[in-house]
Structures
1.
Amino acid sequence: MEDVCTECGFDQSSTPAADVGPALERTATEVADAVRSVPLELLRRRPEPRTWAPIEYLGHLRESMAFHRWLIEQAVAQDHPEVPMVDPDESVAAADYRGADVEDLLGQFHRRVMRLGAHLAALPPGAAACSLTLGDRPITVALIARSAWHECHHHLGDIRRPGGL
Ligand SMILES: [Zn+2]
C-alpha cells in the first residue's frame, strides 16, 4: 500500500484522490497493451520459480483493483475499521492464473478499473480523508486510491520485463 516507490519510480504522494481515476485508467490501458505484447511462449511462464508469470501479474492486478475498491468502501462506510492483511502470493497461487484465458482476465481487469474509477469520481466530499487500519497500518482513502494506481504502474514494469519490451 504505497504511493511512493523507488523501485518503479512512482511518486504520486501529492496527487488528490479525485485525479487518480483517469490516470489509473490510462495506466491500465498500458498494462493491457503490455500483456497483449508478451510473446505467447512467455505469457504463462515464470522467469524464476518465485517470480510470477506475466499472466499472473495480470490476475493479481485484477484482484487488486477489486480489493482497493472494497477497502475504500469500508473506510467510507465505517469509522476507521480494522481489516486483516492479505497474502497476494497465496491468492495468486490459489487462482491458478497460468491456466486462465488471457482475454477473460483482461476484460475483468478493465471492468474493475472502470468501477474503481467511477467509485473514486463519486466519492462524497471529505471521503479522501476517511481511514482504516490494514494489518497494523493506518491508511487513508487518498493513499488507497494512489496505491491502486501504483500497483498498475509497478506491475507494468514486471509484465514488460520478461518479454524485453
Ligand atoms: Zn513501484
2.
Amino acid sequence: MYYSHHQEKHLIQRAGWLRASVLGANDGIISVTSLIMGMAASGASTQTLLITCVAGLISGASSMAAGEYISVKSQVDIEEADLHTERNELEKNPDLELKELTHIYVLRGLQPDLAHEVAVQLTAHNALEAHARDEIGIHENTSANPLQAAGSSALAFSLGALFPMFAILLSPEGFVGKTVMIVGVLSLAILGAVSSYFAGTSIIRGSLRVTIWGVIAMAFASFIGSFFNVSTF
Ligand SMILES: [Zn+2]
C-alpha cells in the first residue's frame, strides 16, 4: 500500500528539549544575576562578585543536573514498572488484554467490530507496544534519558550564568551592579522572545513574562542585599 505522504510541522516535537533548555538558561540568568545583585547591593568588591558568580554557576548547574536526573529517572522507573506489569498481564491473560484494548478503541470512537479487528491486528503486530501506547500512554517520544536530561539542563543553566559573568568582567569600575542588572534584563527579554518564536506563541507576551519575573527576583535580591551594606549603617 502506498500513501501520498503529507507531513505538517508539529511544534510539540521540538517543544520538549527547547522548553527544558530555555527554562534552564532562564534559571541561570535569573538566579545568578539576582545573587550578584544582592551581593553588589551589600557593597561587595568586584573580585568577590566574580567568585560568587562562579560559585553560583557551579552550585546551580549541579542542583539542576541532580534535580533533572531524579525527576526523569523516577519517570523512567514508573514507565518500566508499568511495562513490566503489562508484559506479565499479556502473558497470563491474553484474552482479557485483547478485550481491554478493544474497549479502549471503542471508547475512542470505533465501531465494536472494527475496534476488535484493530485490536487483533495491533496485538499480532506488537501487543506490548499497542498496550504501552494506547492503554498507558507511553511511546518513544515520551521516554527521556535521565543522564542526557541532567547534562543538558546543567549546560543550559551554565550558559545562562555566563551572562552575569561577562557583565562583571566587562563592566566599567563602580557600575558592576547596574551592568549586571541591564545585561540580565536584556538577556531575559531576548531569550523570552526567541523561545516564544520557536514555540509559535506571542513573542511580546513571552518576552514580557520572563522579564517581569526576572526583574522581581533581582529587585528582591538587591533589597535583601542592601540590608547587609556596611556603608549604610
Ligand atoms: Zn493491557
3.
Amino acid sequence: MSYWKWEPAFSVGIAVIDDQHKRIIAYINELGTISIYHDKEKVRTVLLALMDYTVSHLAFEERLMEEAGYPKLEAHKQIHLSFIERIHFFQERYENGEDISKQLMTELQMWLINHIQNDDTDYKEVVQAMLHKKEGQMNDGWLTTLIDKFFK
Ligand SMILES: [Fe+2]
C-alpha cells in the first residue's frame, strides 16, 4: 500500500474528529513504512497502538454523539461494534503468529473512508451544534477533559 494522504474531502467538519482520523492514517502509514524492514518488535508496537487508538476513537465519537443527543446513536454504535469485533479478530490472528499487517491496513483504509464519508457525515450537524453550545457556555474544558479521558 502506498503512502496515504489525508484529503480535505475526508473532513467531517469537526476538528477534533478530523485530528483523530489523521492520527489513524498516520499510524497506517507508519505501519506500511516499518513493515518493509521486517522489524517484528516495531511492527508489534505500531500495530497494537493502531488498534488501540482506533477503538478509543470510536468510543470517543460515541460519547460526543451521546452528549449531542444524536438520534441514530444506537445504529452508529452497532456499526462501531462490528468493526471492533473485526479488529479483535485481527488481533487474535496476529497473536497466533499470522502476518496481518497488509490486510489490516487495506481494510482499515477502506473502512475509514467509507465510514467518514457516510456514517460520520450524518452526525456532523448535531455534534457541531453541541460543541458550539459548549463553547458559548465557556465550557471548552469539557472537550479537553474528554480527550484526556479517552486517550491517556
Ligand atoms: Fe463512527
4.
Amino acid sequence: MASKQDFVRLPAPDGVNGWWESLPSPAPANTATGDHRFDFVVVGGGITGLCAARRLAELAPEMSVALVDADRIGRSTAGRNSGFFVDLPHDISSESYSRSVEADKADVRLQRHGIDYVRETVKRHGIECDWRDDGKYHASVNKKGHTALTHFADGLARIDEPCEWLDEAAIGRVTGTSFYKSALFTPGCSTVQPAALMRGLAATQPSNVTIFELSAVKAMDGRGQTKVLSFAAGRIEAKQVVLCTNAYAATFGGHPNGLLPVYTFASMSRVMNDDEITRLGGAHSWALIPADPMGTTVRRLATNRICVRNHFAFRPNVSVSAADLAKARHLHQRSFDRRFPMLKDVELQYTWGGALCLTANNGALFGKRADGAFEAIGCNGLGLSRGSAAGKLIAEHALGQSNALIDQLLHQPHPRSLPIRPIADVAVSAAIWVKEFSAGAEL
Ligand SMILES: Cc1cc2nc3c(=O)[nH]c(=O)nc-3n(C[C@H](O)[C@H](O)[C@H](O)COP(=O)(O)OP(=O)(O)OC[C@H]3O[C@@H](n4cnc5c(N)ncnc54)[C@H](O)[C@@H]3O)c2cc1C
C-alpha cells in the first residue's frame, strides 16, 4: 500500500534558528543516495526519532538501524524549542496546566522516564548541551496569573509534588526585572541548548545506527514486513519502519487524522555586554514559564543571551510566511521591552518558528499501524520529555517488549478527528485567538 499521505509535508526554513546558528558549522550531511537495506528505518530525527533509533540499536546490537531526516538534525523543531524538559503536568490547553489526578500522575511518570533516559545518555557521552537540572519558575504578572498559579500549586499538592512560592522581590532577584509579581518554583525541570543536544544525540548513536540527513522520504510502499522508502536520489528497503515525524504527519482534507500543526515562535537576543549584564542583574541563568500557557516563556542563558517564546498560529501546511515571522518578532520585541526596560539597546538577533503537533483531546499516536509501520507521533507541545519517552518506548514495543509505560501509551486516547478544512482552520484559529487574547498581560 502506498502511504504517500505520511509525507506530503516537509520541513521548511521557518526563520533562523538561533540555537543552531550559535553552534559551530556541522560536518557535511550523509544523504540517502543509491540503494540501501536496513533492519529498521526510523523516519524523523527529532528527539522522538533520536531516542527510538538509540533504543533499537541498544536492545538489538545485531540489527542495522537507519535514522533519516529531511533537514539537518538539530535545525528542525526539536532543535528550535525553548529547551525545557518538563517533568510535571503541562497541559497547555488547560488554564492551570493540570488535568485530573490520575492523568497528571501518568504524565509525570512518563515524562520523568524520558528525561532520565536522555540525562543518562548526556552524562554517559559527555554531550555538551548546557544540560541543567535547575528547575523552572512559573511566574505571574497580575492577580489573574497569581490565581492560575494557585490552581497549579493545588494540582501539584494533589499529586504530592513539591513547589516553592516566591514573592515579587524574590522572583525579581532571580530575573533582574520587577515585571513579575509572584512565582512558583518547581525543582524537577531540566533545561538544555536544544540544537546542541540533538546534534550530540546524533553524534553518539550506537555504531549500528547510520544517519541520513537532508534526506526527505517522499513515499513508503509495501504492506507487512518489507517496506521501500523513496528519496529524491535513492531508496532504502527496510524490514521495519518507525515513524517519528510529529506535525509533518498531519493530514487534512480527505483523511483528517486529528493532528494539528500549530506553530509557536521564539526570538533570541544578541550576547549582552558587561554593562548590560550589570544593568540586568539577577541570576546568571534561569528558565521561566508564564502563569497562563498562552503567555511568554523566557530563558536567560549562560551565554548571556535572552530567549523569548510566545504566539501560536495554526498552519495546516506546516510552514509559515514572512508575515507570520514579522508578526512574531514584533510580539517578541514588545514582550522583551516590557520585561527588560534596562536592556533597550539589546536587539533580538534571531527569530524563528516551529511546528507543535497538538490534538484536540491531548491524545497521540503510538503503536503499530494497519500497514505494519510503527509510529510515535503527537508531542502536544511537550516533545522534549514526552518525545524522549515515546521514542524509547516505541523501540521497545517494536522489539516485542512490554511494560507499564508502553501499556500507558497504547491506551492513551487516539487524537480526536477534526472537521475538514476550512471549518477546522476557522475553529482552531479562533480558539487560539481567544486564548491569546485572554492571556493579556502574560504576553
Ligand atoms: C519555539 C518552540 C518552543 C518550544 N519549547 C518547548 C519546550 O521548551 N519543551 C518541550 O518539550 N517542547 C517544546 N517545543 C515543542 C518541541 O520542539 C516538540 O514537541 C518536539 O520537537 C517534538 O519532537 P519530535 O521528535 O516528536 O518531532 P520533531 O522535532 O518535529 O521532529 C520530526 C522530524 O521529522 C522530520 N521529517 C518530517 N517529515 C519527514 C520526511 N518525509 N522525511 C524525513 N524526515 C522528515 C523533520 O525534519 C523533523 O526533524 C517547542 C517548540 C517550538 C517551536
